Structures are given as structure tokens and as C-alpha cells.
Queue: 3 jobs
Job 1
Amino acid sequence: MDNIRNVVIMGSGCAGHTAALYSARANLKPLVLEGHEPGGQLSLTTLVENFPGFPEGIQGPELIENMRKQAARFGAEYQHGHVVSADLSKRPFTLHFGKETIQTRTLIVASGASARWLGLPNEQALIGHGVSSCATCDGFFFSGKEIAVIGGGDSAMEEALFLTRFATKVTLIHRRDQFRASKIMLDRARHNGKIHFLTDTVVDDVLDASKKEVTALKLRNVKTGKVWELTASAMFLGIGHVPNAKMFAGQLDTDQDGYLKTTNYVFTRVPGVYACGDVQDRRYRQAITAAGTGCMAALEVEKLLEEEGR
Ligand code: NAP
């Protein structure tokens, strides 16, 4: 008996839990390192209506907790922490997280993607003081206030709709006049009397860092050049995500935006290292597709270890 793990799974979103379920049921005793956002994006969302099997929909946090319980029932182990660096140059692979080091024969990277920020001069100073990327976490604090939401995809629509529970007015600001959002989400937002759309508009800055609260957004119309200030008590971002793969720089291939490159769905260029879910999927990015690739990665691990006589 050695201390080398059969499989370590990085990340505890939909992909990670599904990989854990399958590898636990294959008796591989997977270790899941939960990452810095345990539960991933589903834990920050509200009603999930498009995961098959739930005709009335299910709350994201409940869905992800159920996945975790299901994997744990078959012996998956969970540990807090996220990998800061790794040596994938030889097997077993070495992973560093916190003060600990783990060795593993195979690795499933399911580290997902984290919210993207705009990079405004005062943005970072106001995170937690009215600037947020999570409506479900922070919306409640802005009851009776006017709120701005940035983005033109499903996340922005979902955030705007959710925030109408608290806000007197939600201004949805999008840099173009075409939307990536699905028709159903866009229609819902358009038909909500509390949501006002500002298109062809970008945010140049958020005020007021000196007061440690959001008071207004500096806006600019990209077609007319007009600049003005919009009064708002909060700015919620729904502008997409950045894949969490920096710890593998130089060891695994990425595309120009940092998504891990895979072949045959889940194979990285290092034998024994598989990637699944949002860290490698820039096209579909759905809970169900993340679960699907999590399953594939676990099946590949099982196959490889079996071929190696483990
Ligand atoms: P997304 O579809 O990539 O949309 C990101 C939006 O942010 C785009 O409108 C983009 O503008 C804008 N944006 C990006 N960078 C920006 C910047 N620097 N400044 C201003 N605007 C910027 O991302 P998402 O909305 O997070 O959705 C990701 C995936 O999850 C999608 O597949 C979506 O369908 C899915 N999702 C589904 C649901 C649901 O079904 N309930 C909910 C949430 C997410 P441009 O359009 O101009 O590029």
C-alpha cells in the first residue's frame, strides 16, 4: 500500500462531482479537492430549469449538494483547498495545495471558470461594497435601491430578473445591440417592467471608491460617444467567465483565452490527465454537458488504470 492516489479530481462543480460519482463507483476512492469556489457556478445560481429529470426545475445549490451526497455515498472523499501548482512531467503527478502535497496516478481537472471582471479603475476597491458578480449572494443587500447589471448573455438576464425581487429598478447595460442570451431569457427580461435596457453602452468606471460604496456608473455610448453618469447603488456583472487553468501554464495546452485544449472530449496532451467541464468547454458550458464530460473523464481514468493493472 502506498500513499499515491488513484485519481484526484480538482473542482467540485457539476463536472467534478460527476467524475467523483463514476470513479467512486469504480472503486477508485477518488479524492476531490473542492477548489476556491466549492460547488462551482451552480452553487451561485437560482432555479435551474434545464437539467433533465426535474420537471419543475431545481435550485442550483440543492442540485449540486445532491450530486455531492451521491458521490460521497459511494466513497468519494472531499477536501477543502485548491491546487496552486502541479508537476505533470512524470507519473505519479504531484499536486501542491496549501502546505500539502499529494501524489496521484491520474488527474481530472474540473476546476471550472470564475467570474470575469471589467477591469475598471475603481472596480476592485468596490467589490463587496456594491460591485458583485453574484446576484443570489448579494442582491438582498440592495432592497429598495436602483441596480445596474452588465452583460448581454443568459447570466446577465438571469441576474437582472433575480434582482427585480429587491430593486426598484434594474438597468441592464450591454455593449452591443445584439444579445447572446437565449430568446426565452431575453423575452422574460424584456417583459419585466422593472428592467430597463441600455444597449451600445459601456461602463468606463464605477463610483465612489472614496465613500466605499457604489453611487453611480460612468457610462459611454459607443455609437454616439455620449458620456453620462447613471445613479446606482450596485453593479452586478454577468459578463462571462475565465477558465481556472493558470496553475498548469506551460504543462497543458490552452487556447488564446486560457481554456484547456482537449481531444476526444477529455484528453489533455499529458497521458493520465483529463479535463472536463467549463475549464475546457467554451462552446456549451451547461451543467448537463459538464456532467457529461465529468463522466467521460472518470471512465477514461478507470480504463487507463485497468490497462495498467491497477
Ligand atoms: P456569455 O454567453 O459569454 O455572455 C457574456 C456577455 O458579457 C456577452 O453579452 C458579452 O458581450 C458580455 N461581455 C463579455 N466581456 C465583456 C466586457 N469586457 N465588457 C462588456 N461586456 C462584456 O456568458 P454567460 O451569460 O455567463 O453564459 C455562459 C453560458 O452559460 C451560456 O452558454 C449560457 O447559455 C449559460 N447560462 C445559461 C443560463 C440559463 O439557461 N438559465 C443561465 C446562465 C448561463 P458580447 O455579446 O458583446 O460579446
Job 2
Amino acid sequence: MRTKITLILLAFVGSLNAQNPLLIPGTISGTEFDLTLQNGTYQFWDGVNTTTMGVNGPILGPTLIMDKGDEVDITVNNQLSDTTTIHWHGMHVSAENDGGPHTVILPGETWNPTFEVMDKAGTYWYHPHLHMKTNLHVSMGIAGFIIVRDDEEAALDLPRTYGVDDFPLAVQTKDFDENNQIVGSSNSDDVVMVNATIDANLDVPAQVVRFRLLNGTSQRVLNFGLSGNAPFYQIGSDGGLLSNAIELTRLELPPGARAEILIDFSNMQGQNMQLMSYASEFPNGIYGATYPGTMTFMELIGYNPNPINGADFNLMQFTVVAPNGNPVTTIPDDLVTVTPIPEASADTIRTLEFTPEAMGPNQLNGLFLINGVSYDMDVINITVPLDNIEIWSISNQTAIAHPFHIHDVQFFVLDRNGVAPPLSEQGRKDDILVKPQETVRFITQFSDFANDPVPYMYHCHMLVHEDGGMMGQFEVVDNTIGIDENAGNSMDVSLYPNPVSGMQATLGFPGKNTYLLSYEIYNTSGGLVASKTIDKKINALDIDLKGMNQGIYFLKVYTKDAVYFKKLIRK
Ligand code: C2O
Ligand code: CU
Ligand code: CU
């Protein structure tokens, strides 16, 4: 405990030397990515062992470098003693490849998503997403970067040599107990680290350097800035590059969000600079401010006192060294063409409202609801037609700001309480802070993926809130395939056992007899492997699986009213 407090104070006071070289995660590039989730031991402080979880190592995970247009093949081998999932945050992939809470990887098992990289060049990340354990698994150390490259980005004069003039910076805050072990779910996150390095220093060349910032904290909003209020330039948001570099002295990033920035260290050789969070500038009502609720009497257990709440504190230090071989020396002005979706093109407007489970002074310690309900794995909250353009209007009727994140898509923010967002938020985003009493509207289109056996998620990216049920599910449905159908909510149909190792599985319609016309079973390449006409009202039916090899299949169920899709795993 004592060691810990001393170190926090050092970080907090700020001007003292940072001493630990920044950990720079290794990389895997190409189209095949082998990831092993493992338990480990890591020394956040010299000589002090802390139990951790990591990917291909004891902490964090390798940076995956992917090219847009490539077909990637990922294996995720779970060597943890716990079930988990791995989600590709920000990437546009089908729901079954997305690694949400339904796509569990049991201990000892391997998950093998394959998909085409459709995203623009940008900074994405991966992390566990098991319902009610996301915070634990992320806090224990599982998180990694994904860098997507494309031709548009390659044509710009930007720093892009990983570990030389292009660095990922995952900022996290954690709580450690008196035995220096990570406390999984805590509001007392007083230890600041970047890439798992406390008091980190990075030697940077005296030229323009690119940083890929990730707010990888469980709950804390960060207000990035440099010591002395030196300017920096934002070039990218969650889903890729902006249209122009923006000169800034502050950049607010909520949990889960990313930004790419450039800092010009030319002529600074021999000097130091601090990357900071200017949290003293936050109004109350943001996790990170002096008080987490809008009213100072609203307590959050464990939040106060914490020296970094409402204070300006150092994240890490840069020490400027000699420039390297082929330096970028100017900040480009124009970047890429960003084409926001016009508001008038929206097909559907949806409203989502955040409320506390219980109003009143103790609300911060309770659960938060979206449209009055908590997450239920068996309920699809929203069904979106394929290719629909939608405006989601999110209003926050709670006393604390929540970062709203949606899977599958990148969106464009239309406005905050009717006012256009700052330039910083005018690029592609998947994560946006909604402050108390604020309504944020965004527009997006749900393209390419539909009728998956599992839904996508939307949720608060404060992981404690997400685990507490501040999450919902949506499915994207293509009504144009098959017979004249309404694609039904796949949760209305059950399939048991699944995975199945025997010769049959049972298809059921929980709670109601249903007129079943027929079913078809397809393999993953779309070939029909079985079909049967039934034509009667039933509650359950045994499906014959003879002759089907091990693997993944899709069951398409035609009833009088709807068509359902179910994934079937044959072991
Ligand atoms: Cu970064 Cu649904 O998560
Ligand atoms: Cu996500
Ligand atoms: Cu929240």
C-alpha cells in the first residue's frame, strides 16, 4: 500500500522524472493472427509480482496490423481458467465474428473468426466482452491495438513506422489492493499507466511523431493535453482519419475511444514533455471530475478521495532525442475525404434514454438502464433492416456522463443538445460521451451484415456499467432473401444441444406452438446440406444431423410468420 501511494504521488506531482521505459507491444502483421489468452505475472513495480491476464504474454496483447481488403484468419486460444470472448472494437464485421457476449470461448477452446477487413485506416482495439466480466478481464490486462492500413492513408506524408515515429498509447488506470493485486471492479482506480507502464518515459525523435491514443480505462474520462499547453494535432478519430489536421491543446476521450495525434518535437532535442490529463477542467458529473455526479452530495463508493479525480496529472513523459533517418517534419493540412451521411437521408429515428435504476442521491452506485431495461441476453432490443440509415438520439437522464458505444458501425455525430459537435468529433466515431442532461444524435448506416445467429451490442463503455446491464442488443435483418418473410427474432427459436455431438438436435419454439413450414441447413460456404418440409403446428422438433461433419452450420427455419436463422455447431 505504501509503495503504491508513493508512486501515485510521484505521478501526481508531475514534474518528477518518469523512469520506466514505455512498453511498446509487439506486432503481428499479415493475414494470420494467432492469439493465446493466458494468465500471467507482471511487475508493474520492480520486484512486485501482480497476477495478470494477457494475450501472447503476461499483459496487454500484440498490436495487430491489418491491410484493408485482406481476408484475415484469427485464432483465439483461451488458456485462461475462465470463459471469455474477444471483441474487435470499432471494426465492421459480421455479428458472429464480432466477439460479443454470445460468442464465448470456453477454457482450453479456440475461436476462429475470419473476415474481410472493411475498415478505413485507423486505430481499433480488441478486448474481452463476456457479460458481467468484461471489466474484470480488461482490468486484469487483456487489451490490444489493431492498426488498419489502406492506400488512402499510405498516400499521405504521415509518420507510420511502428515503434519509431508511430506509437500506440493505451492509457489505463487501475486499483491495486494492499498485496499489489488488481482489484477487478473498483471506483478507486488511482494508479495511472500507459501500455502497462507506470511513470513511463518514451524517447521520441526530434521530428513529427504520431501517437494512437486509446482510453483503455474501465470508467475514467481523460482530458489529454501536453505540459505547458503545447499544441498538438488531431488527425484521426475512432474510425479513421479526419478530413484535416486539427490544432488542439485539449482532447477529451471517453473510455473505449481512440484518437490519432501528431506532436511536433522538432527543435526540442534534449527537452522533456509530459502527456497529461487535465481533469481539473471537468465539470462535476463526469467520472474523472472532483465529484462523479452532477450534485456534490451524490457519492460513488470508493471514488473519493482519489488524488487523480479533479486534478491535472501526468500520464507519461516524452524525452526528445536525435531525429531519425527519414523524418516527417511538417504537419499535413488536408488528410482524407470524409463523407458524413446527410441527416435528410435517414430512414428511421430511434430514441434511447439513460436512466438510473433508482432516482435520487444514491443513484451513482446503482444500475443504469437504457430505455428502462437492463441487458437480457435473450431479448433483442432493436431490429434494424439491412442498409437502413438511422439517427439514434441518445439522451442522458442520469447524474453522470456515459460513453455510448455501438458495434458493427461507425457513426457521424449530428449534434449535442442541438449544437454541431466540435471538429474533433466530426469524423467517424463508435464511442461518444453523453453528458448529464444532454442529447447526442448520430447518424449511421447498417450495411453488409445481416441475419446472423447472434446479435450486435450497444452499451455504455464504462465497463462497470456495461457489466451491470447498461447494454442492449440489436440485430440487422435482410428481409429480401428467401421467401416473402419477416426475418424473425432468432431468440424466439431454441436449438438444443448446441454445440451438438450426437446425431440430433431439438428445434423448439419456447412458449408457443408455431406453424413450421420447413427448415434448411447450410454450411458456411452457403451449400445446402439438409432440408425437410414439415407443414404443421409444433412446439418442438428433432432435427436429424446424420452425415454432417464437425463444423459450423446455419439452420434456416421457415414458419408461417417469419424466417429464423440459427447457428449450429457440430462437434
Ligand atoms: Cu469496446 Cu462492446 O466494446
Ligand atoms: Cu465494440
Ligand atoms: Cu455508463
Job 3
Amino acid sequence: MPSAGLVYLWSERTEMKLRILTGDRPTGALHLGHYVGSIQNRVALQDSYECFFIVADLHMLTTRPGVADIHAISDHTYEMLADYIGCGIDPEKSTIYLQSAIPEVYRLQLLFSMLVSVPRLQRIPSIKDMAQAVHLNEIPYGLLGYPVLQSADILLPRAHLVPIGKDNESHIEITREIARRFNKLYEEVFPIPKALISDVPVLVGTDNKAKMSKSLGNSILLSESEESLKKKVARMYTDPKRIRADIPGTVERNPVFIYHDVFNPNKEEVEDLKSRYRQGTVSDREVKDTLFNALNQFLAPIRKKRVELMKNKEYLKEILVHGTRRMQEEASITLDMVGEAMGYHHTWNELGMW
Ligand code: ATP
Ligand code: MG
């Protein structure tokens, strides 16, 4: 339920839909983990919410600050846009924008950084994981501040809901704390946003590592070719004690069966495979071949759409430019509200800066 202040804000603009903000870092093409963790929910909710999807290139700098990475943002952004639209995100309905092109996000992040303590940020486990994943011995100030920048992203369009994977849940907790703190210290400007964790909070990697991730090299891309998909599925981790097809295997927490559960719509087939796997009457080959078929059927339409989209970069560019302009308008409104609430408008006025 919205707080009293928000009811007031909404009743003034009752035609307004509630808002979603979420997005991805442009570090490469997206994978099945992104899809089940967040994109699926975005597609499902794009009619009932006003959606803002961020191409979070500033977040990329937390672990990859080099010029080569920055030059790669444009190519990665095209890939991401093709993934989004290929999965069913409708750019006519949703605002897709480039984070680094919105100056207000840098400003809001600085203001928010005053409202959260260092020990509070140090307690977030995902920050340490990210530093480890890219072999950083010392955590940069900006990486520690990742959830603060994320708070600025979410609160810039004054979003209410954030569809994300489980790994990001603790960041939304920080966002809620910052929004509450701001509203209490100044004026009620921000909704207190909620995380929306999907039915598959974390998709396991093909190697059985806890999380499918680009940087861990254990992912299946939404753009994966049929051939490469076949190889990746064939090499997937499965019950290691099954060196022969007649040895009974374990289905629970086995990534091959986790993927079957998520991506194979033929539930009867999955149950039959599970039961024969437990008895040792099915080969790994058969289990993986059926998984390949299910995944391939799921990816085929996305792949097809993507090919068309990647041929038309001008169209993708237009979507991003249009979305960034739209976001820019919203960001200016928010920073106006922030400046007013914090008393800066008054001060700038006094000093002749306004
Ligand atoms: P990668 O680790 O592959 O580089 P990432 O975590 O950096 O991916 P982000 O751009 O940070 O990717 O995440 C985008 C969204 O996708 C977030 O909401 C995140 O929680 C979700 N996500 C990423 N990987 C998974 C996964 N394996 N399972 C579920 N959700 C995921
Ligand atoms: Mg991440």
C-alpha cells in the first residue's frame, strides 16, 4: 500500500500508471539468466505499468572502467536492444534509455551518497562477489557505491517496482532506506519502491555455479546459434556419479533438470525423464537432447527477430534516442522536486544563482 504522501501525489494525477525501473549493464549480449530473472517480468508488466528500462553503462565502470570497454558500449547496447525487443519488450510502450546520457543521475547519486553509511554498504554481499569475479583486490569507492547509483536510477523516474534477480535484492533494500531517509529529512518526494523477484530468483550456470553470468563463462545467450547451443547443452554439468546410463541419478539441484523445469513446456516429458533418470533407465544424451530441443524452440523466435533488428541499427538508435529524451524530461522534473525539497531553490535564489 502507498504511504499517505503518495496517495496524495497519485490522487492529483490519477491517470498515471505506477512505474517500473529496471535494466542491465551493457557488457555483452544477454543470457537466459537475465531473461528469467527480469526480462520475463518486464514483458508481462509492460501494459499495466509505465516502464523505464535503463542501459546501465555507468554501472559497467564499477568493474570495467577502461576506454576499450567504453567504446564497446554502443555495440553492446545494440545487442541488448535486440535482445529486449526480440523477447517481446515493446519500445512503443516502454522507455529505453542510456544512463550516462542523463546528467541528473550523477547529481542524484551524490546527494544520495550522504544518506547511507559506509558500513551499511560494506555489508552487502554482492559487492564483494562482483569485486572477486573481476579479480579486484581492493573495492573501488564507486563499486561500494553501486547500490547508491542504482538508487538514483530507480528514484530518478520515481519508480514503484523493480523487477530483478535475487542478486540485486539487497540493493533495493538500500534504495528503500535512502528514499525513506530523504522523505523524512526533506519532503516526501519519492515512492518507497519494491523489488519484484521472479519465480526463478537465480538461474544456475551451465557449470553448476550458483549464478549464470557473462563473466563466469557459464551462460547461454538469448542470441546463441543452434550449433553453439547444442555444444553448450552437451557440455552441461550433470550428476557426476552417473558414468553409465544405468546408474540411478539425482534430479534435485541438477542444472539440466532445473533448465528442463524452467524452459521445457512439456511437463509430462520432463516428469518422465526425471523418473527414468532416478531409476537409471535413460541416457544423459537423451536428457540433454530433449533439453536442447526445448531451449532451441524457446530461442528460435527470439533469434529470428534479433537478426532482423540487428540489420536495422538506425531503428535501434532511434528507440534509444527517443527513450533518453523522454527520460531526460522526467529526470528534470525529479531534480526540480529534489532542489525544492532540499532548500536549494531557496538558497540559489538568495545568491542570485537561479
Ligand atoms: P553477468 O553477471 O552475466 O555479467 P550481471 O549480473 O552483471 O550479469 P546485470 O546487468 O547486473 O547483469 O543484471 C541484470 C539483471 O539480470 C539483474 O536484475 C540481475 O539480477 C538479473 N540476472 C543476472 N543474472 C541472473 C541469473 N543468473 N539469474 C537470475 N537473474 C539474473
Ligand atoms: Mg549484476
